[in-house]
Amino acid sequence: METVEGTRLHYGDFIVIVAYFAFVLFIGLWTSRQNRGSAGGYFLAGRSMHWIPVGASLFASNIGSIHFVGLAGSGAATGIVIALYELNALYILMLLGYLFLPVYIASGVYTMPEYLKCRFGGQRIQIYIAVLALIVYIFTKISADLYAGAIFIEQAMHWDLYWSILLLLSIATIFTITGGLTAVIWTDFIQTIIMLIGALALMAISFAKVGGLNGVVEKYPHAIANTTKYSNTTCGVPREDYMHLFRDAATGDLPWPGIVGMSINSIWYWCSDQVIVQRALAGKTYDHAKAGTVLCAFIKILPLFLLVFPGMISRILFPGMIFCFLCLISVIIYTVWSYMYLYDNHYLYIFKKY
Q1: Which of 209, 162, 193, 233 is nearest to 315 (CA)?
Q2: N or C: where does the chain have the smaller number of CB atoms within 10 Å of the terminal CB?
Q3: Distance from C-alpha of 302 to C-alpha of 55, rounded to nearest angstrom
Q4: What is the tens place of the pLDDT at every residue in 295-330?
Q5: Using CA of residue 18, residue 21, residue 22, residue 23, what is the dihedral sign?
């Protein structure tokens, strides 16, 4: 079957893409039709969600196009250590479900800025945190997610990057503004299923190409580009600790003491971030909310196998595509987390000031 001119897709691929977007919009708007008349219905889906959609939405709110690109790229560059961020969330999600959620539910709030107002008093802190959170999300997460998603569209359909971003924004805006959290949770649920099925298929094909996990362990150290292999530089040579999650405190690219700082940032993200907590608060009871966090924690085991290992396999299959710029991935990761750390410290400063 021939591809559509100017793209890498067949006509059947376009039909599937259009049908997918139409189905997601329909499900989001249809399921939210009963929860549009009140603040509780709009922001918390009427507190009527089952634990399975809650857990799936928690996962989809965290995992997106940036993870499919970033985790795979980091796996190709440095091995499995990047999966620490995902595995660390296992324990932090338990804190959300068993420690933080009872407090949030008992307070009866709809948003995190509203909770801060109830806890510390004053209108200024509520407005300040709401505005600060919006700015931080736009410049650190939303922008990166849109760019990563637009890259997929650009590569597959050869669309202009900015038109691809506009498409993503338009679809998200329609069902988010008109449908509220109910629409978001149900579309997250659908997209979680699609992501897991697609990633599982990719993982199976990838492992089959290299002979399973043993093949990855044996072949990854030898996946070196010719430009590196036949030169005097060591840039682009795989690390010897590529299969280590806990790396040396002095020489590791992600030293094991850094797990402490990672956990602090994770507590902020998973336990006090509006986007995450809002999903959990939508559970019809505390038990459903808690079960949703447990489900998400179980799913967070999978990115190591679904995203990181396929990234390592890509290096084995295409060693000529590995250049020294992969060394910059660690710098980018640390830069992003530094911004999050600065935001986290500023957050604490506001607590003390007000």
Answers
A1: 209
A2: N
A3: 14
A4: 999 999 999 999 999 999 998 988 877 655 544 444
A5: positive
Q: Please, what's the b/e burial string for 175-204 (b: 16 or more CB within 10 A of its CB; e: otherwise)?
A: beeebbbbbbbbbbbbbbeebbeebeebbe
Q: What are the E-state strand segments in the chain? A: none
262/139 Cα distance (integer angstroms) = 20
Q: Computed over its alpha carbons, how large is the radius of gyration of the chain? A: 22
| 128-172 residue pLDDT tens | 888 988 888 888 778 877 887 787 777 777 778 888 888 888 877
Burial of 37 (0-12, 13-18, 19+ CB in 10 A): exposed
* One-letter-per-residue 3-state SS of 302-314: CHHHHHHHHHHHH
CA distance linking residue 285 with residue 310, whole number of Å: 38
Sequence-distant (6+) residues with CB within 8 A of 124 are 354
* 199 token code pair: 């990633």
Contact between 74 and 333 under an 8 Å Cβ cutoff? The reply is yes
Q: Which residues contact 267 (CB under 8 A, 6 or more apart)?
A: 92, 95
In this structure, the chain runs to a length of 354
Q: Which two tokens stand for residue 285?
A: 């009871």
Whole-number Cα distances in Å, 221 to 237, 255, 287? 8, 20, 46
- Residue 146, both tokens: 């849109």
